[in-house]
Design goal:
404 residues, alpha/beta, Rossmann fold, 2 domains, five-stranded parallel beta sheet, 14 helices, 14 strands, 17% strand
């Protein structure tokens, strides 16, 4: 059966370009399913999903948006509506992949729809902003961003070539054979790691894999934490070995690797087993020394490499994280255990190392215990986080929780 590609775009202003793209997709033997997000009209062809439907899904009406003539409001409405409809229509089996074209505004609307789709569903965004920082557009999903080279405005020798390539890309993706789902697939464990906890996570991962689990390791750089949380929300993850929660230090201190204020929520709400440690909350991350805010110039700084500077967190900041960890974990519907390695939270939080500050680590532990639900165990160890006995203990505890 021929696969179907959802073609989403502003057909009112870019109808000619989308008509060309539709033809190219159909040349590859795929069907098209068109979704119009333009607020000024239908364009040169009738869409399968009208702009009116998108506006309604976004909480307004096309007539109202047109009469108000407020581009910002219209963008917000169509962005919401595109995401709602994309999820619904995919679940109804209307399409197998999605493609869109446009500038920064078009990319905002289209990628909101793409982010609403499951991981693994082909997604191609042809846009003028693809060569810059696209993190706001891609988020934690698997969107393929393709530079349009010239603006998506008219057909010329450059744009035709790009659009033809884009059609080939999306049809190649949807026509690719997906591996059959095996009934004996191993349960997935999400684990967080940093350069400062590599030894610990590698050791724990080996124990988990030897026990029949498959471990997905996420680099705790903001995107990594958000991605793990997204996969938990999506139902992919069976258990969590959250050994590196450093992203909360960046959220508290204004560092560059924050995962946002929702970090530590997904596993708790999903009710899946999780083991949590405060590893690397002793450090906030900044880029090169010259990028550090002036107010932090007198803090304890460590040059991890030429591009990364670490800042030691204070007792007050650690206490705040203790309160936050308790708040997040207190809503857990499933089993959770917290392990606190008082011998050191990282490679540099260790006797005679630059971030060794037992009082700061103790501040975290004191506030955590004070605020945490009494039925959630807190296991305090005199070992450091990278000691094999500590990482082994943490891995075995997660296995115990999973088997229960």
């Amino acid at each position: 059966m021929a696969k179907t590609v959802a073609v989403l775009g502003a057909f009112d202003t870019k109808g000619q370009e989308y008509a060309f793209l539709n033809e190219e997709i159909e040349k590859h033997g795929c069907k098209t399913f068109t979704i119009n997000v333009g607020v000024l009209g239908d364009g040169p062809f009738k869409a399968d999903v009208s702009a009116e439907k998108v506006a309604e899904a976004g909480g307004s009406s096309l007539q109202k948006l047109a009469s108000e003539k407020d581009r910002g409001v219209a963008m917000e409405v169509m962005t919401r509506g595109a995401a709602v409809l994309a999820k619904q229509l995919f679940e109804q089996g209307k399409f197998d992949g999605m493609i869109s074209m446009g500038g920064s505004g078009g990319a905002v609307v289209a990628t909101s729809a793409m982010r609403a789709l499951p991981v693994g569903v082909p997604k191609v965004m042809v846009t003028t902003v693809a060569s810059g920082d696209v993190s706001a557009y891609v988020g934690t999903t698997d969107i393929t961003m393709m530079p349009s080279i010239v603006d998506v405005s008219g057909l010329n020798r450059i744009s035709r070539s790009i659009f033809i390539n884009a059609a080939g890309a999306i049809t190649g993706m949807v026509n690719s054979e997906k591996p059959a789902v095996e009934t004996n697939e191993k349960p997935l464990i999400g684990a967080t790691m940093f350069g400062n906890t590599t030894r610990a996570v590698d050791h724990a991962r080996q124990i988990l894999e030897d026990s029949g689990y498959e471990v997905l390791v996420f680099h705790a750089t903001g995107t990594g934490g958000r991605t793990m949380e997204m996969l938990i929300d999506s139902g992919f993850i069976t258990g969590v070995l959250d050994m590196t929660t450093t992203e909360w230090a960046d959220e508290i201190c204004g560092g560059v690797l924050s995962a946002g204020d929702k970090r530590l929520e997904a596993a708790a709400k999903a009710g899946i087993p999780q083991v949590v440690t405060p590893a690397c909350i002793d450090m906030c991350n900044f880029w090169a020394p010259e990028t550090i805010p002036a107010k932090f110039k007198d803090r304890n700084l460590y040059h991890w490499n030429p591009n990364v500077t670490l800042m030691r967190t204070t007792p007050e900041e650690n206490a705040e994280m203790g309160r936050i960890f308790a708040e997040k974990l207190n809503v857990s519907k499933g089993p959770v255990v917290v392990f606190v390695p008082m011998g050191g939270f990282s490679e540099v939080d260790f006797p005679e190392k630059p971030f060794w500050w037992p009082e700061a680590d103790q501040a975290f532990l004191d506030e955590l215990k004070k605020k945490l639900r009494p039925d959630i165990p807190v296991i305090v160890s005199e070992l450091d986080v990278n000691h094999p006995d500590f990482s082994g203990m943490v891995a075995k505890k997660l296995i115990e929780l999973l088997k229960k």
